[in-house]
User: Fold these one by one.
Assistant:
Number 1:
Amino acid sequence: MILGASLAPAALVEDGQPRATIVVPADASPTVREAAQELSAYLEKMSGAKLPVVAEGQPATGTRVDVGLTQAARQRVPTGFIGDDERVWIETGPEGATVCGGGDRGTLFAVYRFLETLGCRWLAPEPENELVPPRKTIALEPFRLDTRPAFSWRLFSAGKPENERWGLKLGMNGLYSAETASTNGACAYWPRSIRGVHAYYQIMPAKRYSAAHPEWNPLLGGERTPTNVQRGQLCVTAPGLADEFAANVVRAFDEDPGTPLVSISPNDGYGWCECDACLALDRKLCGGRTTQQGLARAKPFMGDRVFWFANEVAGRVARKYPDKKLLVLAYINYAEPPDTIRPKPNVVPFLCHYAPADYSRAINDPASEANRQFNSLLKRWMKISPDLMIYSYVSKSMWWRLPRPVLYTFAADVKYLHELGGRRYYCQSSLSDWPLDGPLYYVIAKLLWDPSANPDAIAREWVNGMFGPAAPAITEFYAEVETAVRKTGKPYSDNPRTQAAGLYDRASLDRAMAALERAEKTAHGDEAVAQRVAEVARTFRYGYWMIEGFEQSAKLEATGDPACMEAARAAGQKALTYCEVSKAADFVKRWKTGAQLGVPNNGFGKEETKGDRRCWNSDETGPGDNACGWASFTIMAPDRSKPMVIEMDVWGESQLTSISINTSKNVWTPIRSQQRLSRKPQWDTLQFRIPPEALDHERVAQHLGFGGADSQIWVAAIRVQKDK
Ligand SMILES: [Zn+2]
């Protein structure tokens, strides 16, 4: 609120000369001293004047700026303010300014909010993307701000120090690191011995326990199997396991007493123990029922088992650390709330918007079947665990950096979660890919403080700050990218291979490209803006051409037109000249091999030469490992009423006698060759005659495969024999 100004405003800086002193409490913590230094440093960047920082009680000249809960500030803040850690109080007037928080962290946030009122903006993590307006004179206009963040946990995967510093400026309160906890007001971080969400394998490493306690390993297919991050859980009913598990969690907190949380979640994937006791537990807790995620096949429901074990651990940990929170993923076949188990107060369900999920629409948009399912389980979770944390896929590496316009859906989700009573939000993201995601991270960080804020206005501020003269063209660019997806109405989650084709409206993408070209022209001459536009353009051009590759590939499957394969390869290769995305590069290799081999394919190794011909081995890992010998390819059969003859140029020393065709009923029919390989170092041609009854009559595209285990088969070309 703005107060009427009756007296001349006090000055911090006049004509480049310091006119104020920053005063911190006599016993200021490292965080409060850091906050004061940040204020001094940014005022100096703005004006060239360096304001001294002194402890309360020391002489202070000029206008007084209290940072933190000095004795003077304590007189001014409202009742109940002190101890409300993240609450922010800023008051300026003719006598000076008070910039403080109810706790140390709040003071740090207060300094950044205060600098924002003076025009500073931190738009992205890189130092060149902060805006610090040059001002020779900085006067204090009368102003008061009393605010606190709407969400109590505002976490992301900071990773690098520059992302951490940016997160603090945006008011995020973790996940940072043990090393910086003393200067960031004890923001949350993973304990050093248990990092990341998938935790069973970290807390109970197979290396340490497998020999002495094989019974703690899950029983899988009749064997006690050691686990890792990707595979296998624990035999949660095994005697002694919960004690040891809890002792290790307690030890992690002993080593890192500063953090308020740890994850005690299962490893990624499945591998649930099949022993009698674990199955009996499932039957007792949830009748041994199954669960379904989206369109996936039903799987045994593990929610009760996972949260039952979490409670076993939580009770033990609470004896020493009753206030520390134990995060437990609600994910894949344990995403649904448990039937009978109710998480203990120190257990925080960590609900992943993963599957079912559709990022083209908001969670509460009933038009999306996937989100309708997720919304239903979210609401059921909120009833039993209102303190849960949402795991939001703010960025998604699985989406290969293709355009993913999620700003407005995610903004709507933050508002909706807040309405439901959600107060904990985690971004799966280091929030550092603005060339792809634009204002997304900035908007989310702001909404986590104030979900009632207008995402459009925040996004506009970001675009104007980043792109200056090119802002109108860039605004149009973002709008067209969003329209491209909205127009087709297709859902997408995490699989570009099956979802990208048909997802984007081509005309909108073309208009987006045209808007970008205009932005490039407008930015010409403004170095900083031109650089930013170039980053956005590079990323978008990569996406534009990858999308074209997926479209061509889909057209090939539908029509069998071989020109599409070459077009897909060319588009993919072009995409990679703008951005090297490793998963996309692997995929483009398939298009390339397809164009050379004559058919779309999967599972071949690198290009080799044999007998002067370019060829590919069906075993990409080579002999001796008894793995990866299988390769597959697709052949088009426009007329499925006639037999089809497939010709393959195969190296004579290969181990190949038959290929298999996969019908829509998921049956693999082996087809023997009409010739035998020569067993000599030469190129042979084999023919496989496929009768019409073995063909997949539902589709033009026929899927075939050969090899397996460790078989070594080199192929130079695959083609359909033309009718004679
Ligand atoms: Zn078991």
Note: Confidence is low (pLDDT under 50) at residues 1-5.
Number 2:
Amino acid sequence: MGGPSIKGGADTITIRQAERSQLTSLARLHEGHALFRRYALETTALADALAQALDAGDGVLTAVRAGERIGFAWWSPRGAFSRSPYLRLLVVAAQAAGTGAGTALMDAVEREAFARAADLFLLVTRDNAGARRFYERRGFEAVGELHDYVAPGVDEVVMRKRRKASAPAVVTAPPG
Ligand SMILES: CC(C)(COP(=O)(O)OP(=O)(O)OC[C@H]1O[C@@H](n2cnc3c(N)ncnc32)[C@H](O)[C@@H]1OP(=O)(O)O)[C@@H](O)C(=O)NCCC(=O)NCCS
């Protein structure tokens, strides 16, 4: 099934729901980023976590360009405070960074999250300046900090984006 696409021709990025058979190759995408070494993230463990996430009803979206999966976003509908959508992980292949995949993935996550809730939360490593700028430009606001939380010695910034007042919740209802 197709998803929303941006750009045209060979540069087109399509966002799709991830399939179980793709999770290991998606998990591998994190290996190109030094950032994740600080979290001692391992590909097999991440692939297992993504499989459990799918079982639990989380969203795992992939960005596909020219038949290649170049990024993924993992989000939990009530992952923040058992109440609000929470972006668990956003990863774009290092060689594809800066080419629009992160934007396309976040557009899709926000569309799904804000269709059912008024807020979306995430954590970003405090010194990950590029990602913080990326989220700030999208309207995320730093609302707190967590020290030694996800990994020892690493500081996280809690970011929140609120649904625009002009974008009401959209729900799918049964006929009637
Ligand atoms: C942060 C990230 C998801 C952005 O995705 P992307 O596909 O590179 O982003 P886009 O091409 O849609 O947008 C580019 C913007 O992202 C930001 N950015 C962050 N890291 C970047 C990187 N390594 N290379 C290029 N742009 C980066 C820049 O602000 C850039 O804006 P600019 O072109 O005006 O400078 C991606 O670079 C990535 O996977 N980084 C490593 C993992 C990470 O930090 N994840 C987020 C926290 S969990």
Note: The chain has a mean pLDDT of 93.
